[in-house]
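Handout, page 2. Input:
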Amino acid sequence: MKTINTFAALSLLGLLASLSSPVIATVDDSEIPSGQDPPAGSDHEATAKYYEDEARKRHEIVAKYYEDEARKAQAKTRELKLLLEHYEEKSYLYGKKAQDLQAHTSALVRKYEQAAKADAKEAATHRQIALKFKEKNHATASGVQRFSIVNKSH
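Output:
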């Protein structure tokens, strides 16, 4: 279980590291990483669009990850609130430890609520970035379409 969590953390760090590199608006052919070829016969605008699409997809993946983590944290919060309620109702079962258990569980509830809020905020940020890429691509596509209509009429 611990190795799975470590692997997941390292995978996330690798994904975040790859996302931290800035998106280049225009790309020289020499800057294209090996193993990832843009569409054949493309110019610089098409190459830039390709990389923007890839960046949008990555942001959507990261947003989904954070949304899933927020849901998990909310589920854990609900579970801990039920446990806290149990500790408060049945404190006589736990003797001197009852107050410690209540305080500890209450602190965990606060921790998971904060984590859920932070994850939801991070997901919203990545969704917003992905949406900006998507809107930019739609604006570019509609601009190209208008241009081609003008060319056909002349």
